[in-house]
Amino acid sequence: MSLKLEAGWYKNAIIYQVHVRSFFDANGDGIGDFAGLAQRLDYVQELGVNAIWLMPFFPSPLRDDGYDIADYYSVHPSYGTLDDFKSFLSIAHDRGIRVIIEMVLNHTSDQHPWFQQSRSSQDNPKRDWYVWSETDSKYRGTRIIFLDTEMSNWAWDPISKSHYWHRFFSHQPDLNYDNPAVREEMWRVMKFWLELGVDGFRLDAVPYLIEREGTNCENLPETHAIIRDLRKRIDQEFPGAMLLAEANQWPADLRPYFGDGDEFHMAFHFPLMPRMFMGLRLEDRKPITEILQQTPEIPPSCQWCLFLRNHDELTLEMVTDIERDYMYDIYAGDKAMRLNLGIRRRLAPLLDNDRRRIELMNGMLMSLPGTPIIYYGDEIGMGDNIYLGDRNGVRTPMQWSGGWNGGFSNADPERLYSPPILNPVYGYPAVNVLSQKRTSHSLLSWMQHILGIRRSSPVFGSGSIEFLYPANHRILAYVRKLGKETILIVNNLSSAAQSVELDLRRYKGNILIEMFGRNIFPRIGDLPYFLTMGPYQFYWFRLRQI
Amino acid sequence: MAEETLLSDDFLRQLINVGEVDIVVGLSSHNDAKTIEPVVGAIQAGILKCFPRERVAIINADGGSQDGTTELVAKASIDDLWRESKVYALRTLHSISVRYARGPDPSKALQTILAAADLLRAKACVVISPESTSIEPDWLQRLVRPVYYDNFDLVCPIYNRQKFEGSLVRDLLYPMTRSIYGYRIREPYGSEFAISGRLASDFLGKGIGNEDWGKMGPEISITIMAVTAKYRVCQSFLGTKAPSSRGAHDVVGVMRRTAGALFSSLDSNFPVWSAISGSEDVRIFGTAKEVEPEGARINRKRLLEMFATGVAQLEPVLRSILSPSLLSELQRIAALGINEFDYPSELWAKTVYEFVGSYHKSIISRDHIIQALVPLYRGRSLTFLTENRNGSAENIQRREESLCADFERLKPYLLEVWADRK
Q1: What is the 3-state secondary structure (H, E, C) of A162-221?
Q2: Residue A237: how many CB atoms within 10 A of its CB?
């Protein structure tokens, strides 16, 4: 069954990011699968999200956790079959949960038949499907993304005795989007999944589709033309389907990806995320308000995607050197926590497992303008394992219970795709869904509560934002408005109690209703509105003119 | 509690918004619009360069400026309001002004700054003169680091001075502080200094505001309190100090705030200083910079005239302050011509000590005693200028050291005078 795709559905969505491999293993082989995911959709529904974003599940040698795709039209055998996927999709839709899948447009695995053919001879019809060169000196102005592993964006292919272009790992050759046949084929791929019923795509690594000499090969006009073309086809044939851009760029560089509302529907706000962590530790709203002030307006149909953590490292590409140094010192004291230009840790360990800070960060995630994404396991405060290499430490099995393999799989523990977290603080005996379901004050219960409040008003997803600037810089306060509905959000970023005076004169006469407890606060008058706040406390107030 | 009477509701509200900080930078202004902007700019640059992660607040205690000084300070805030900012900072930097009085009062200004630092729980409080236009961003680091990282309680400045600058410090304050309290602090009366939160709090509670010497010279009072209470004191080379335009010709006023405070401190600290003999080095951070020599434009004849006139006109006063033999010696040298004039260091040291004794006994108004010292100080300055007109830096240093040695050697004479006058 397909859900009716109302225009703009994504603006009021709450997305849950999950890796099929990590969520639940139904067949006992130690690897999560679609059948397992389908079985656990009741949990996802109860959590209160209404969309799932799946990481790549296509056939792949899995040298980059599935971002190295070897077949775009099928499902990796470890995760099940295409029929299993269809079944999962149907159950998700039955529960009102939309499904967004990953689409890696920029590159394939070097094991993909297209690349195998392309490298086989210079005369092969697929030769021009990738970017080949006799030298490795072209496009010298292009940065290397995976600094820890790659020395160049070119790799030598001993079979065809030439160099191929790759922006990520050398086993991920970039497709040649100057070739119309490639563009057509990738549209066929997207169409295939849309016809099955998926609700949208998260398009991976979109800034890098096109290369041009003399440029940094990012965000080129030709790349935007390709996106516009894909969007046009989607709007014509699958109206309501959504495109989400993964473009780790500054807000001003990201803005063109929305076009005039004719490119992406949504894009991740990468620079905001590290600044939320920074603001929390500095106990100063400045990093957050500044980046949001620098964020340009986007077309009304478009939306930012906000997140605290995801499957990658906490990226520090979009911060200044001084900010990066600060973030490393504060959040990644152990060098093993650092990877590329980022920090490979989950939310709870980043915040020292401080429940108040976890709640505050989630409170901001849910109330700042954008569609929030929750990374699987963060809703129960799962930990990480920085010794697993690459980013695998944040991709460990979901912790369902305190029993065998944390309830993730019936397989022998040695057979699991990854060791589960076992330490006494974050391990599955201590942190798991089952135990948290049993207590009304668990993090999971609290998350369900806040998601429920978020869903109760479209203001959060679609409303405007206006920052208040109380003289106390530890207080981040803003007003969200949509139509006649107004919500005031006040966050205390400090570890100490604070007092704050808010200038709310324009809302004079309104009473405040605290949205979590539904208690009434005094009416707004002519004087500054005075609040005292506990450490890391936050308020969401609905303003009512009674 | 001092802060109860000091802090207006509005100032308190501003402090609440600032919240806990690591460092307070204090300014004490009064109609400083001409100079304060670059000074605050340098402070701001110093914060961003040397303490980008620390929580810092600039607190300006203003004595009723009418020229827009306070607005210029407030403009230096770095916050998240959307406006032009030339600098990028990790944190919000609050820069606030408070009017503590309608007229300037250095003691109250410092009290206000320290009370703010105390309330904000600052680990270090640095005070900068709004007239120090020669300030460089590194001054902040040089003053704050020893407190913030090395656990010192007081950092006194050392300025690079022209050889004829700073004569009051060189001829009186340094040798006297050194001989009395036993510490070789080159600038016991610096207009820039840094203190620890604990010393600020202690000083606020015990010293300033409660005693005359604190009111008269708060900066030197801090130094005296630090050394008498055995706080950890050090010095830091800053750089060239721009000459102050304010009070440059008010030698009497400066003498009151410095020598007056120093003399006044001796009453309550007698048990401490009377037991000290000799002096010890005080740790110095940084190294001195070469100072480009400038031609000295000093009217020696005028100095001699002021000395001679003072000795003659103030004879009745001096007679009550000084011993007959010493007064007679001063009268003898007052009659000398410009080329023969010499006010030897030993005679100067004895003069100062006899003034201290009379001040202690309050044989006449203490203020008159301080005023009477001014012409004699001019005579001593004339001798220094004459001796060092063509002297090298080393020669000058040697003579300074010799003067200090005389003050230390004659300390028993001070004790004798002190007892006699009692």
Answers
A1: EEEECCCCCCCCEECCCCHHHHHHHHHHHHHHHHHCCCEEEEECHHHCCCCCCCCCCCCH
A2: 13
Contact yes or no for A474 and B53 at CB 8 A = no
pTM value?
Answer: 0.87
Among candidates B13, B19, B88 on the partner chain, residue whose Cβ is nearest the Cβ of A474: B19
Tell which residue, A113, A381, A129, A103, has the closest CA to residue A243. A103
Closest Cα of chain A to B417: distance in Å?
A: 57
Write the CATH number for B129: 3.90.550.10
Q: Is A150 a known active-site residue?
A: no
Residue among A290, A293, A501 with most chain B CBs within 10 A, to mutate: A290
Give the span between the Cα atoms of A373 and A375, in whole angstroms. Answer: 6
Chain B interface includes A503 (CB < 8 A): no
CA atoms within 13 A on the CB side of A372: 25
- Give the H/E segment covering residue B284: strand B284-285
Asked if B17 and A470 come within 8 Å (Cβ–Cβ), the reply is yes
How far is Cα A48 from Cα A68, in angstroms, rounded to an integer?
32
Two structure tokens written together for B190? 């610096």
State the amino acid at position B232 in one-letter form: R
Chain B contact for A327, CB < 8 A? no
Q: What amino acid is encoded at B420 in this protein?
A: D
How far from chain centre, in Å, is Cα B300?
26
Determine the Cα–Cα distance for residues A382 and B238; give it in Å rounded to an integer: 52
The verdict on residue B274 lying in a domain is: yes
Q: How many domains does chain B have?
A: 2
Pick from A500, A284, A288, A321: nearest CA to B92: A284
Dmax (CA) for chain B in angstroms is 72
Longest dimension (CA), chain A: 79
Does the CB of A1 have a partner CB in chain B at under 8 Å? no
Q: Which amino acid is at B254?
A: V
Which residue in the set A286, A494, A501 is minimally distant from B91, CB to CB?
A: A286
Nearest to B158 by CA among B150, B166, B148: B166
List of chain A residues whose C-beta atoms are within 8 Å of the C-beta of residue B17? 470-473
pLDDT confidence of B293, banded at 50, 70, 90?
A: low
DSSP state of A294: S
Contacts of A137 (CB under 8 A, 6+ apart): none
Place of tokens 């410090």: B169
Q: Do B318 and B171 fall into the same domain?
A: no
What is the rounded distance in angstroms from the CA atom of residue A99 to the CA atom of residue A13? 11
**Do the beta carbons of residue B176 and residue B134 sit within 8 Å?**
no
| Lowest-confidence segment of A40-44, B137-141, B201-205 by average pLDDT | B201-205
Domain that holds residue B57: 2-285
CA A519 and chain centroid, separation: 34
Element at B396 (helix H, strand E): helix B393-409
- Asked whether residue B107 falls in the same domain as residue B245, the answer is yes
B280 shares its domain with B352: no
Q: Express each pLDDT in A361-383 by its tens digit.
A: 999 999 999 999 999 999 999 99
Instruction: Give A83's contacts (C-beta < 8 A, 6+ positions apart).
Output: none
Residue B293 covered by a domain: no
A200-204/A538-544 β-pairing: unpaired
State how far the Cα of B152 lies from the Cα of B142, in Å rounded to an integer.
12
Beta strands in A326-463 (DSSP E): 338-339, 342-343, 371-375
Give the whole-angstrom CA distance, residue A22 versus residue A79: 10
Is B294 a domain residue? Answer: no
The answer to whether residue A237 is catalytic is no
Write the DSSP assignment of A92-155 as a string of letters: HHHTT-EEEEEEE-SB--TTSHHHHHHHH-TTSTTGGGB-EESSS-TTTTPPPS-TTT-S-SEE
B169-215 pLDDT tens trace:
999 999 999 999 999 999 988 889 999 999 999 988 875 555 554 55
Give the distance from residue B354's alpha carbon to the nearest chain A alpha carbon, in angstroms. Answer: 56
